[in-house]
């Protein structure tokens, strides 16, 4: 969705970081507040728009875990 369309607000509500001020959020016909937290977490996945991994080359990302690794070590 476009900037300002409510994606972040929806995620905040679904993750129960915020509670609704008006109306209600339902998943599968059940009020969000009635969901068990572990069942709620198992029913959804959040993918951040923020990219921390694979922003550079594969080598760059491998070096994040082992900054002193040689090319030979990275290839095995």
Automatic annotation (TrEMBL):
Q: Which Gene Ontology terms describe the biological processes this protein takes part in?
A: cysteine export across plasma membrane
**Protein name, entry field:** ATP-binding cassette domain-containing protein
Q: Could you tell me which species this protein originates from?
A: Vibrio parahaemolyticus
GO terms of molecular function: ATP binding; ATP hydrolysis activity; ATPase-coupled transmembrane transporter activity
The record's listing under Gene3D superfamilies reads:
P-loop containing nucleotide triphosphate hydrolases
Q: Where is the ABC transporter domain?
A: 1-70
| Keyword Secreted carried by entry | no
What domain of life does the UniProt record list for this protein's source?
A: Bacteria
Q: Give me the Gene Ontology terms describing cellular component.
A: plasma membrane
- Pfam families given in the database record: ABC_tran (PF00005)
**Alphabetical keyword list:** ATP-binding, Nucleotide-binding
Highest lineage ranks of the organism? Bacteria, Pseudomonadati, Pseudomonadota, Gammaproteobacteria, Vibrionales
Q: Which residue ranges traverse the bilayer?
A: none
């Amino acid at each position: 969705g476009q900037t300002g369309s409510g994606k972040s607000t929806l995620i905040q509500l679904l993750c129960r970081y915020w509670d609704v001020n008006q109306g209600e959020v339902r998943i599968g016909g059940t009020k969000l507040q009635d969901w068990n937290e572990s069942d709620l977490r198992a029913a959804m996945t959040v993918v951040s728009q923020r990219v921390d991994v694979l922003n550079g080359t594969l080598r760059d990302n491998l070096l994040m875990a082992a900054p002193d690794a040689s090319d030979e070590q990275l290839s095995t």
